[in-house]
Design goal:
The complex is a heterodimer of chains A (about 375) and B (about 190). Chain A has about 375 residues and is an alpha+beta fold. Helices cover about 35% and strands about 25% of the residues of chain A. Chain A is built from eleven helices and 19 strands. Chain A has helices at about 10-15, 15-25, 25-40, 45-60, 65-90, 105-115, 115-140, 245, 250-255, 300-310, 335-345; strands spanning about 100, 145, 155, 165, 170-175, 185-195, 205, 210-215, 220-225, 230-235, 235-240, 255-260, 260-265, 275, 295-300, 315, 325-330, 350-355, 355-360. In chain A, strands 1, 2, 3, 4, 5, 6, 7, 8, 9, 10, 11, 12, 13 and 14 form a 14-stranded mixed β-sheet that branches. In chain A, strand 13 and strand 14 (about 275) form a beta hairpin. In chain A, helix 2 crosses helix 4 (about 45-60). Chain B is mainly alpha-helical and about 190 residues long. Helices cover about 70% and strands about 0% of the residues of chain B. The relative contact order of chain B is 0.11. Classes of the chains: A alpha+beta (about 375), B mainly alpha (about 190). The interface of A and B includes residues 9, 57 and 78 of A.
């Protein structure tokens, strides 16, 4: 307090602690300056005038912009920069997909040669995880690389009769002893798989963040460099693990089972695996001729069973509760969600999506 | 607590990372200074989108020539100076105004303080505020800009001189004169 006792209005105005008090009004500062004015009544007037002066400046020149607006501008800017980087990356590579024989060492070296400086840096930030997972995969093996550096999807047939469709920019590394010892592949990017059934040898898709194990099904794995990792199952059943969990001995417990018309999402923060229904579930099983999805006085429980059989989704409802409910509706050309909405409206119920399953909450019908 | 430029070790590291091509560092820098830059830009144009565009362009240009940027301990004033120049150029281009004319600094349209605020604040205080405000608004624009950069953005006199391309002496004179004038009004 000593130094302030000599202050006049200009000194207060220029003092940073004083400014902080006027501008932000923290309680500690308020009590300090209240106390100061009490103890130095001759200066009280100067304090108040200095305060008025600064307050005017702060109010007069303030600008209104929300944090959301700012975040959006930042996001746009960073996205723009990323887009420009990708452009130069695409321009570097030329022409058609090719197969090449590479050992892990070659892969690392080739990465530096083939891509431009900007993208090299981007890769190197995620390289730590990449190299670790990839190196573990390729240890003591030679791999063949399927790469799509074109602009269209491209499909290959694998030695076991399974097919893989790679989206542009994606690569699939396959050990040369596939499928004799096991059916393991390493994916970077996005691919659809149609896997031939082989109970002896589960087909396992390794990627940076997720491991997907299947017996025989149709599914899509999205394993981009940045962003969410997703596994979508069109038909069949897969188990999905976080790469970090897969290495643990008790791995069976830590994975999740994903069935038809479900997907599992691993957010970049790697918090947990979230299971959801696909945005556009498809009818999986061949429909028996009796099932048309057009109903006249049909018991709702039968309708729900037909949905479950057709889409291979789980619908949970209280059989007792919905016992007396019937449905009159034409649902044939509707999506699964539209069908559910129509049914719920008819019986005054609602549905919920939890963990990739459908739950109907209803009440007794007349 | 320093009133002058805030060139901490952290800021220097951020700037270095940015120059080496780390786009996350760029995002950090933008986040740190966006509000201030936007507030400054809005004093020269009431068009929010125009100001936002200028800031976007500014950072895109800085990004593309990041290899040739020098060390700078004073990131904030450098950004302010670059933005000022850019807004000047863009305004000239769009309005085809005489190039010798300088940018015109002026406060934006302000809202009235809330009713509650008016009750809490004493009448004396409110009268003072009104007097100072009308006095500030009538000051030459360059003088107002100096006051803004000094008290609102906490730039030191050297930095202000750089941003506005005037002498350090002119800056301290303007500050001194402004306080002297304002205190007599209240």
């Amino acid at each position: 307090m000593d130094r302030y006792s000599q202050y006049v209005i200009e000194d207060f105005v220029m003092d940073s602690y004083f400014q902080r008090w006027v501008r932000f009004n923290h309680p500690e500062d308020q009590s300090y300056w209240d106390e100061f004015m009490r103890k130095n009544p001759l200066q009280k007037e100067d304090v108040l005038r200095a305060r008025a002066l600064l307050t005017s400046v702060y109010r007069l020149y303030a600008t209104d912009i929300s944090d959301e607006e700012i975040s959006m501008e930042i996001h746009q800017l960073v996205e723009q920069i990323r887009r420009e980087r990708k452009k130069s990356f695409v321009e570097e590579k030329s022409g058609s997909p090719r197969r090449s024989l590479r050992s892990p060492f070659w892969w690392a070296a080739a990465a530096v040669l083939v891509i431009g400086a900007g993208v090299w840096y981007q890769l190197s930030t995620t390289r730590e995880t990449y190299t670790a997972t990839y190196q573990t995969f390729t240890q003591n093996k030679t791999v063949e690389t399927y790469e799509n550096d074109g602009t269209e999807n491209r499909t290959w047939e694998l030695k076991d009769g399974s097919t893989v469709t790679l989206e542009p920019g994606s690569t699939l590394d396959i050990p040369t002893d596939f499928p004799e010892t096991s059916r393991d592949v390493f994916l970077t990017g996005t691919a659809q798989f149609n896997v031939k059934k082989d109970a002896e040898r589960p087909f396992t898709v390794y990627s940076d963040k997720l491991v997907t194990r299947v017996l025989g099904t149709r599914f899509t794995v999205r394993a981009p460099r940045n962003g969410e990792s997703v596994v979508e199952v069109a038909e069949g059943r897969v188990s999905v693990f976080r790469t970090t969990d897969f290495a643990q001995p008790a791995k069976e417990k830590m994975g999740m089972i994903v069935t038809s018309n479900q997907k599992i999402v691993l957010e970049p923060k790697e918090d947990r695996l979230i299971k959801e229904l696909l945005d556009l579930p498809q009818i999986v099983a061949p429909l028996p001729p009796t099932v048309t999805f057009n109903y006249v006085d049909a018991p709702v429980s039968r309708v729900l069973k037909e949905l479950m059989d057709a889409y291979h989704v789980e619908i949970i409802y209280d059989e007792e509760q919905l016992k007396g409910c019937t449905l009159n509706a034409t649902l044939s050309d509707q999506t699964l969600y539209e069908k559910l909405a129509a049914i719920c409206e008819a019986i005054e119920a609602r549905y919920e999506l939890i963990d990739g399953q459908i739950t109907i909450h209803g009440k007794k019908c007349q | 607590m320093s009133q002058t430029s805030d060139h901490t070790g952290e800021e220097v590291a951020l700037w270095d990372a940015f120059r080496k091509g780390d786009e996350t560092a760029l995002g950090e820098i933008v986040r740190k200074y966006y509000r201030s830059l936007f507030g400054y830009g809005m004093k020269f144009s009431p068009d929010r989108e125009f100001v936002k565009d200028c800031i976007q362009d500014l950072f895109m240009e800085l990004w593309s020539k990041r290899d040739s940027l020098g060390d700078t301990d004073f990131v904030k004033f450098y950004l302010f100076k670059s933005l000022r120049r850019k807004i000047h150029r863009e305004s000239m281009r769009r309005q085809r105004v005489d190039e010798d004319a300088d940018l015109e600094f002026s406060a934006e349209q302000q809202e009235e303080p809330s009713f509650e605020q008016q009750i809490i604040e004493s009448e004396i205080f409110q009268n003072r505020l009104k007097k100072i405000e009308s006095e500030l608004k009538s000051l030459p624009r360059r003088q107002q800009e100096v006051i803004f950069l000094k008290f609102f953005e906490n730039l030191d006199n050297n930095a202000i001189a750089e941003v506005m391309s005037i002498s350090k002496q002119a800056v301290s004179n303007l500050i001194y004169r402004t306080i002297k004038l304002l205190k007599e009004k209240i």
